[in-house]
Amino acid sequence: MVSPYFCGMNLKSIIAYGSQASLPKQTSLIAGSFHLLYENGFLRYICIGEKEILRMINHAVRDHNWDTIPFEFLSEEIDIYENAFEIRYEAEAKRGTEALLKWNCRIRGTADSKIVFEIEGTVLKDFQRNRVGFTVLHPTKDSIGRKVTLVHPGGKQTGGIFPEFISPDQIFYDIQQMILPFEGGQEVRITFEGDTFESEDQRNWLDDSYKTYCTPLSLPMPVQLRKGEVIRQAITLEADVSSDNNKTESGPFPFSLRENTYSLPLLGIGQSSEERPLSDSALHLLKKLPFDHYQADIRMGDSEWKLKWASAIAESNRLSLPLELALFFERTEVELQELAKALEKVRPQVAILHIFNTAPFTTTNETLENVLPGLRKLFPEVNIGAVTNAYFTHLNRERFSVEEIDHLVFSVNPQVHAVDHATMVENLNTIQHSISSTREFAEGKAVHVGPISLKMRWNPEAIGEIDPTEGELPYNADLRQMSMFGAAWTLGMLNQLVKSKADRATYFETDGSKGLLQSQAPLYP
Question: Any idea what the Cα angle at residue 477 is, between residues 475 and 482, rounded to 5°?
Answer without folding.
Answer: 155
